[in-house]
Specification:
The chain is α+β, with helices and mostly antiparallel strands and 124 residues long. It has one domain (11-119). Helix content is 26%, strand content 27%. It has helices at residues 36-40, 44-47, 52-59, 102-107, 111-119, and strands at residues 11-16, 19-24, 30-32, 74-79, 82-90, 96-98. The protein has a 6-stranded antiparallel beta sheet with strand order 1-2-3-6-5-4. A hairpin with a 5-residue loop joins strand 2 and strand 3.
Length: 124
Amino acid sequence: MLECPKCHNEMLRVVMPQGEIDRCTHCQGLWFDLLEEEDLKAVAAEVDIGTAEHGAKFNAIDRIKCPVCPDSPMIRMVDPSQPHIWFESCTTCYGRFLDAGEFRDYAEVTIEDWFRQFSAPARD
């Protein structure tokens, strides 16, 4: 089992017909191996059971290590089509960690999100 890179609690494997991910038992953050998030968008509401408010508390933690690759730092990334979504990506295996509520948001691209990409302020 994996350890959550944000709150260091146990992550449980969630198996769906579309694929599998790991979800933290405490912060409800989600770990996706390379490109798994694309296969699971259709079931985002079933997979991402945490609230966006709870996830926002952990979103401030951005200096984390990959739960799969020992000692590999993860970097803060921004989804270009939805620049309000920040996630962490491993520099070695390219896995992604999304805080609670972010995957449901990521799975739904609205017309507002499309326009937001043109007006989003630059992030440091």
